[in-house]
């Protein structure tokens, strides 16, 4: 089994500035790429990939996607903190999505959200809808459905886009032996 996981985190700023966003990409639970919203650039991370030629290719290929996700996360965090009257202090919005590829070539995907450390929403691939993890997240669900990709786009990413990206990353990683 192989896995690809994106972990996105936005933290509300103390001032009226932009919320800092951090995106980490893992292949088989090994840190692979990092994106920091303050620099708006992705870069190779982890011992296996850092410093290797060719890493720039993945960076270029993923940077546009990550910048779009960054903007989406910032908008959602601003709306959520405003709607819930959380105008002071730090608040976080976490998004985790990814897929796994089994030896028999079958795939599975996941996409979930959390607000202030509490699980909020999970995408149900069988019925193509967002389910609330707890009833108190109705507001989060409404905000997400306003700003989120359409359900068919989420399904396409989880069933096709993510597994394709995972296979491309795995093929590239074969070129880089594990450095110990």
TrEMBL record:
Ranges of residues in domain MHC class I-like antigen recognition-like: 2-174
Question: Which ranges of the sequence are coiled-coil?
Answer: 55-83
Query: What PANTHER family does the record tag this protein with?
Result: MHC CLASS I-LIKE PROTEIN MILL1, MHC CLASS I-RELATED
Q: Report the InterPro entries cross-referenced here.
A: MHC_class-I_related (IPR050208), MHC_I-like_Ag-recog (IPR011161), MHC_I-like_Ag-recog_sf (IPR037055), MHC_I/II-like_Ag-recog (IPR011162), MHC_I_a_a1/a2 (IPR001039)
> Cellular location of this protein?
Cell membrane
Similarity section: Belongs to the MHC class I family.
- Give the originating organism: Cricetulus griseus (Chinese hamster)
Protein name per the record: MHC class I-like antigen recognition-like domain-containing protein
GO terms for biological process, alphabetical: immune response
Q: Which UniProt keywords apply?
A: Cell membrane, Coiled coil, Disulfide bond, Glycoprotein, Membrane, Signal
> Which superkingdom heads the taxonomic lineage of this protein's source?
Eukaryota
Q: Which GO CC terms are listed, alphabetically? A: external side of plasma membrane; extracellular space
């Amino acid at each position: 089994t192989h896995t690809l996981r994106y972990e996105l985190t936005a933290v509300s700023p103390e001032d009226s500035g932009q919320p800092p966003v951090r995106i980490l990409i893992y292949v088989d639970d090994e840190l692979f790429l990092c994106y920091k919203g303050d620099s708006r650039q992705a870069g190779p991370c982890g011992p296996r990939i850092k410093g290797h030629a060719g890493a720039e290719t993945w960076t270029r290929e993923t940077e546009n996607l990550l910048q779009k996700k960054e903007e989406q996360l910032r908008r959602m965090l601003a709306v959520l903190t405003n709607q819930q009257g959380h105008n002071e202090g730090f608040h976080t919005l976490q998004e985790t999505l990814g897929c796994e590829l089994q030896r028999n070539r079958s795939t599975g995907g996941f996409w979930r959200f959390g607000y202030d450390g509490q699980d909020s929403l999970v995408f149900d691939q069988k019925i193509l809808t967002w389910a609330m993890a707890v009833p108190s997240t109705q507001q989060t669900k409404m905000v997400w459905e306003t700003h989120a990709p359409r359900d068919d786009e989420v399904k396409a990413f989880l069933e096709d886009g993510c597994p394709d990206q995972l296979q491309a990353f795995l093929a590239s990683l074969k070129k880089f032996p594990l450095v110990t």
